[in-house]
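Forum > Structural Biology > Help requests

Title: Can anyone predict the 3D structure of F-box domain-containing protein?

Hi all, first post here. I have the sequence for F-box domain-containing protein but no way to get a structure on my laptop. I'd be grateful if someone could post the C-alpha cells.
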Amino acid sequence: MAKSFPSLPNEILDKIFSFSTKKELLQARLVSHNFCAICTVYLFKYLTIEVKANKKAKSVRALHGILATKYLAHSIRGLEVNGPGVCQPQRRGFRAWLRMLKPLRPVKHPPFKLTDTMRDSLDDLRKLERLCALTIRFCEESCRYTGGGIPGLLAFRGDMLGSIFTPLLSRRSLETHLEYLCISRLQSRSEPTLTNSAGFIDLLRNLHTLGLSIQTPELYLLPPWHKGVLWKPSLNFYNMMPDEWLLPASQNLKHLHLGADLPWGWYPKVDFRHIRFPHLECLTLGLFTFSHDWQLEWLLSHAESLRSLRLHHCSMLAFADTTRRLLDSDGYPVSGYPVSVYPGTIASGRTHRCFEGQWCCFFRAFTGTPSGLRLCNFIYTDFSQWRPPKGIVHAACDEELVELRHKFCYSAYTLKDHFTLFNSSFNYTGEDSTLEDRVARELSQLREDEKAYLELMNTIEERNTIRS
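Reply #1:
Sure, ran it for you. C-alpha cells for F-box domain-containing protein below:
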C-alpha cells in the first residue's frame, strides 16, 4: 500500500484518511512512517473518557498519558466526558424488573466523589489548546440511585463541571476557540460560580453550537406524591437559564438544541423574548409547551435566518388549573402563568384558564411568512398502539403528563390531544357540551391542524425547488 502512494502529498493523504474508520487507521499506521503520522492525528482527533465513582478510571489515566505528549495533545479536536454509568449497559431481565417495583427502597450506593487522581487528570485539560468540541454526558441512573440523595448528586455534578471547565478556561495559548458544547442531563440547578465567571461568558460567546438537555433531580428522587411540583431551585434555574446560558452566546450561535425531561416553557416558565439570535440556522426544541402568542412571534423573528426547525414532542396548551390565582407575579406583563408553589404549601383558591393557541395557526404563520426555512421536522408521540390514530399532531408522552396531573400536585395542565381529559364540563370556551360534541370538535381541529401542516410542507418544498 505504501508503494502505491509514493509521491502523493500529505494534503491528498489527509483527505483520503479522513474517511477511514478507526480500525483502518490502526492498520494503516503499520504501513509507513508517513502514514503513521497522518493516521495518528485522526486516531486522537476525538476522544472519549469516563469518570467513574470512587475508582481510578482507565480512560482518565490514559488521557493523562496522552496529554503528556504535546504532539498528541495538539491533535485532539473533540472530547467527550461521560459521568459514572453512562458507558455501562442497561440492566435487563427479571431482577431489573423487580428493582422497578421498589422505587422507594433504601439507597445502598455510596455518594459519588471525584478522587484526587481524577481531579489531577482533568486538570490536564488545560493542555488542549486546539479543542473545539466538548460533550459532557451524565447518566440518568446516577440520578435515580445515587447515595446522599439530591445534595450528594448535585454536589458531585457541580464538582465534575467545575473540574472540567476550570482548566479549559485557564488555557493560556488558544489556537482555536471552543465552538461546540453539548451537555446531556444538565442538572436543573444554577452554578453561579461557573456561569457568572468572565472566562465562561467568553467561552459561550465563541460558540456556534449549543445543546442542553436538562434533567430535574426531584422527579426521580422524591416519592410519587411529590412529582410534578418543582422545588424553588429548579424553577429559578429555568427562569435564569436564558440569561446564564443563551444570552452570552446569542451573537454567534448557529445551532441551538434545548430539551428537558418534563414539559417546560409554561411550567416551569422559560422566557426567550429578550434574546435574539441573528445567525441562528438550526433550532431544536424538545418537550416545549406553547401557551402564549409571544412564543410564536419569537420564532417568526428568526424566520429569515432559520433553515431548520425541529419540534420533538412539543405540545400546545389547551387549558390549565392552578391552585393560586393567575397573577403577574413573575414581573412580566403576561397573564396565564402559575405562581411558584412548592411541597408543603397550603393552596387557596382555584383558577381555570383556557388558552387560544392552535397548531393550525402556528403552521400557517410560517407558511405566510417569507423565510429561509428548508426543513421543518415535527416529531410526535404515536398513540396508535392502544387507540385509533388521531392525525399527525400529538402531545407529549402520557407517562410524563401523569406526573403533572397527579392528584397531589398543586399545578397541572392538560393538552388538546387527550380524549379522556375532555370528560368534564369544560371545553375550549368553557361552555357545557356533550361528550359527542367535544369529540367531534376535537376531530375537526385535528383535521385542520393536519391540513395546515401539509400546506407548510408543500410551501417549504416549493421554496427549496426555487432555490435549487
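The chain has two domains: 1-43, 45-467. The chain has a mean pLDDT of 70.
Shout if anything looks off.
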